[in-house]
Write a structure and sequence with these properties.
mainly alpha; ABC transporter involved in vitamin B12 uptake, BtuC; 330 residues; globular
Length: 330
């Protein structure tokens, strides 16, 4: 077994261990016997409800969102050739935020399940707008034009969101709850609604990896190898939109994960995206669950949301990577 294959197997074992910890550890202390009882022989007591209806859906959603954001971040850094790029650079997060605020302000939507489809539609529309703006001109979409278009669209949508929440207190209160980024309080309905989009995004990402490897050598080299650069980039952007749009719709914006995880993966795998993507997927799931567990423990009996914990964990870790000069060139 090669080193990279062994690394994947090791990450799978770690992910299983973190999943078990996520189900067993929480703001409410439940003995291991109670966790086992709740999973396999429930009788409807309080501990059974906590395990089956709160912790298990939360863990499954964390796995799905972590995988989506990890792979989305790796794709984004590859297609923009920007080591500081994260999935929000295409305006996906800002588009989702604007759609959520408009759904509250104009339609009175006030439930997480109701936010999902508006957030996903906003993410899709924002990424399409960025892609169209970045594709304008004879050269078609390029890393620079996409980044500039994403920055412009993101700034516009952030301004609109700020204007709306300042005008309406209800929109501000609901938006603050969504904006913090959390996997708590979501049941399996939320996961089942976004799961088809996440699976489609992962499938497209897998097909996108070989072309992305060729493009990392330079677009001219990729074209000489027979790669259709425009089609490869379009597929990559579509995969990012599905993955990040679905994750943001379900949990709100969760920062740092899509930025940090690809760098860690690349340090172990090298520049081959056929390995970077699965490593990023597993590392993303592990990191989000670890942050979620930490958030339940540090503020007992209350909790710190996973978006806040990832910022507290991710920022110092990323600074450490930069200072150690372990960021692998893209």
């Amino acid at each position: 077994m090669g080193r990279r294959s062994f690394g994947l197997l090791f990450l799978l074992v770690v992910l299983v261990a973190v999943c078990l910890a996520s189900i067993a550890i929480g703001s409410k202390e439940i003995p291991l016997s109670g966790v086992w009882h709740g999973l396999f022989t429930p009788t409807g007591v309080e501990d059974d409800v906590v395990v089956r209806e709160l912790r298990v859906p939360r863990t499954l959603l964390g796995i799905a969102v972590g995988i989506a954001l990890g792979v989305g971040g790796a794709l984004m850094q590859g297609h923009t050739r920007n080591p500081l790029a994260d999935p929000g650079i295409l305006g996906v997060t800002q588009g989702a935020a604007l759609a959520v605020v408009l759904s509250i302000f104009l339609l009175g939507v006030n439930s997480l399940v109701g936010y999902i489809w508006f957030a996903f539609a906003g993410a899709m529309l924002a990424s399409v707008l960025v892609f169209l703006l970045g594709s304008a001109g004879r050269g078609g979409p390029s890393p620079v034009t996409l980044a500039l278009a994403g920055a412009a669209v993101s700034a516009l949508m952030n301004g609109l969101v700020s204007a709306i929440v300042l005008l309406d207190q209800q929109s501000l209160d609901a938006f603050r709850f969504w904006q913090v980024g959390a996997i708590a309080g979501r049941d399996l309905t939320v996961l089942t609604q976004v799961l088809p989009f996440l699976l489609a995004g992962l499938l497209i990402a897998a097909f996108n990896a070989p072309g992305l490897n060729a493009m990392s050598l330079g677009e001219d080299v990729a074209k000489s190898l027979g790669v259709n650069v425009s089609r490869t980039r379009s597929l990559g952007i579509f995969a990012i939109t599905l993955l990040v749009g679905g994750a943001v719709a379900a949990c709100g914006p969760i920062g740092f994960l899509g930025l940090v995880v690809p760098h860690v993966a690349r340090a172990f795998t090298g520049p081959d995206y056929r390995w970077i993507l699965p490593y990023s997927a597993l590392l993303g799931a592990i990191l989000i669950l670890f942050a979620d567990i930490a958030g339940r423990v540090v503020a007992r009996p209350s909790e710190v949301e996973v978006g806040v914990m990832l910022a507290l964990i991710g920022a110092p870790f990323f600074i450490f990577l930069v200072r150690r000069k372990r960021l692998v060139k893209i």
